[in-house]
């Protein structure tokens, strides 16, 4: 859904309108969800025991869930990209603030997550789901009012039409001119004069994917104004470079999926481990299983704060890089934490299983849930590097005309990783079952999750090596400076740096 929402925001509606529409849809979904628990005729059944739920309840409930899904699809990519749009890339001080934006965005997001998995989950467990849904509905309604109140102060970017059409045009033009020879000097390639472009930033020519450069060749038949205006026959260097940017993101997208698979375990198997452990803190107060996830949010808050306030200033002085370290380096550091998470998780699960084998009747109830704290904290710290880095990467390194779609690509990493995680579990279950005993039994005590965690640690470590190779050969987006006039004036070494 975010891929569709991000596309519509960039191409047709604009980011502000998309946020407004999607938040309204989201709010409507929450209202229906609340009504399905509050309105007597829409409740699952009249009594506490439900032998067969009402059909009307099922219809309203699933309609609410799908509305929330659709609302999320427009809200997530558009709101974050709209927030980043408030900073001017051509203004040095604002550009530096934009680098901090994604850190503080995730800081706020994790503060909300902390309240969600503690306060809301507690209300769901101890009071009622209806009360929790009502709180969530009021929070979303308040956020919509606050968002609309800021309308006079926002900066807006107009929707420029489908960002995919120009890329298709470049591909078609390059295929048409496949037999032409590239000029030795890139300044002979076609580019729009800077005086004729207002919104679009011009990109520097790069030497990779040279076949696409043929789309910008001015041959003898294209010197007429009419032919130059046909985008299916002639593309500018900037349009060619925008297609290159999108193609260059594919290897990064693919090599970050194993990290997403590790993240998926935190919300699934890690929580299931917590159910089997001793969750009592004081007297009879017991932590709800889902609230254990707060440790991951806490780890991310710590990571983002230390990175923004301590590491970035120190690294800026040490490396001379205005970001402190490059975006891809930041993502890579988080991947190292994901490998560590799986190793720690495997060791903790092995300890839990040893306790179960020694005392089968009591199981692991004598083991404190805080044994899971290290793996939650480490994956949270890794999120502070990789997830924030991915948001910044997919916003910054895609064409300016598809930044909402860029954030949607980041979200699709997590979505695809969840599907692949489920597929991997199915495959491992099938293979190990043939070997005698499946790693995934009827319950965790008859399973070997520690083996599965070691497998994920191995996959992620091997993938990290591939990622390092891809990242070292990656060329960052290189935008023309204000005084740059010709294509040849761009320096590829600056892009590599």
TrEMBL record:
GO CC term, one of those recorded: membrane
Segments passing through the bilayer: 12-33, 104-123, 129-149, 245-267, 287-307, 327-348, 368-395, 407-431, 451-470
SUPFAM superfamilies reported for this sequence: MFS general substrate transporter
Signal peptide stretch: none
Principal location listed in the UniProt entry: membrane
Pfam families (alphabetical): PTR2 (PF00854)
Compartments it resides in: Membrane
The keyword Iron is annotated on this UniProt entry: no
Keywords annotated in UniProt: Membrane, Transmembrane, Transmembrane helix
A single GO molecular function term of this UniProt record: transmembrane transporter activity
BP GO terms, sorted: oligopeptide transport
Record's bilayer topology term: Multi-pass membrane protein
Source organism superkingdom: Eukaryota
Family indicated by similarity: Belongs to the major facilitator superfamily. Phosphate:H(+) symporter (TC 2.A.1.9) family. Belongs to the major facilitator superfamily. Proton-dependent oligopeptide transporter (POT/PTR) (TC 2.A.17) family.
Protein name as it appears in the record: Protein NRT1/ PTR FAMILY 5.7-like isoform X2
Organism field: Nicotiana tabacum
Lineage, top ranks: Eukaryota, Viridiplantae, Streptophyta, Embryophyta, Tracheophyta
Name of the gene this protein is made from: LOC107761322
């Amino acid at each position: 859904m975010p891929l569709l929402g991000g596309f519509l925001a960039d191409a047709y509606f604009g980011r502000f309108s998309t946020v407004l529409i999607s938040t309204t849809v989201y709010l409507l979904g929450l209202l229906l969800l609340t009504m399905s628990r509050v309105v007597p005729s829409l409740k699952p059944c009249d009594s506490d025991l439900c032998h067969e739920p009402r059909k009307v309840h099922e219809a309203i409930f699933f309609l609410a869930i799908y509305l929330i899904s659709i609302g999320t699809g427009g809200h997530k990519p558009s709101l974050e990209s709209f927030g980043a749009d408030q900073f001017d890339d051509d203004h040095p001080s604002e550009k530096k603030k934009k680098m901090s934006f994604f850190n503080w965005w995730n800081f706020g997001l994790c503060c909300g997550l902390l309240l969600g998995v503690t306060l809301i989950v507690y209300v769901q467990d101890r009071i009622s789901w209806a009360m929790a849904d009502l709180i969530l509905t009021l929070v979303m309604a308040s956020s919509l009012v606050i968002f609309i109140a800021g309308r006079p102060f926002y900066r807006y970017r107009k929707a420029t039409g489908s960002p995919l059409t120009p890329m298709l045009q470049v591909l078609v033009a390059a295929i048409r001119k496949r037999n032409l020879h590239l000029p030795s000097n890139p300044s002979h390639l076609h580019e729009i004069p800077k005086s004729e472009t207002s919104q679009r930033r011009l990109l520097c020519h790069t030497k990779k994917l040279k076949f696409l450069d043929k789309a910008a060749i001015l041959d003898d038949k294209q010197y007429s104004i009419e032919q130059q205006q046909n985008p299916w026959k002639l593309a500018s260097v900037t349009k060619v470079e925008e297609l290159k940017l999108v193609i260059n993101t594919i290897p990064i997208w693919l090599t970050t999926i194993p990290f997403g698979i590790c993240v998926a375990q935190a919300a699934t198997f890690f929580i299931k481990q917590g159910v089997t452990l001793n969750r009592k803190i004081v007297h009879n107060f017991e932590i709800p299983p889902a609230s254990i996830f707060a440790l991951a949010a806490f780890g991310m808050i710590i990571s983002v704060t230390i990175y923004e306030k301590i590491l970035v200033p120190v690294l800026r002085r040490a490396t001379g890089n205005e970001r402190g370290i490059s975006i891809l380096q930041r993502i890579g550091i988080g991947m190292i934490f994901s490998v560590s998470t799986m190793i720690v998780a495997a060791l903790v699960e092995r300890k839990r299983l040893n306790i179960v084998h020694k005392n089968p009747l009591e199981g692991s109830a004598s083991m404190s849930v805080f044994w899971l704290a290290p793996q939650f904290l480490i994956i949270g710290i890794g999120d502070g590097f990789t997830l924030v880095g991915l948001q910044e990467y997919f916003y910054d390194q895609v064409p300016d005309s598809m930044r909402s779609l860029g954030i949607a690509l980041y979200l699709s990493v997590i979505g695809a990783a969840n599907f692949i995680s489920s597929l991997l579990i199915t495959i491992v279950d099938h293979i190990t079952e043939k070997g005698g005993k499946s790693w995934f039994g009827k319950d965790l005590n008859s399973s070997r999750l520690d083996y599965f965690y070691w497998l994920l640690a191995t996959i992620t470590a091997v993938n990290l090596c591939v990622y390092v190779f891809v990242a070292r050969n990656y060329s960052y987006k290189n935008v023309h400076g204000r005084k740059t006039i010709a294509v040849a004036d761009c320096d590829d070494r600056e892009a590599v740096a």
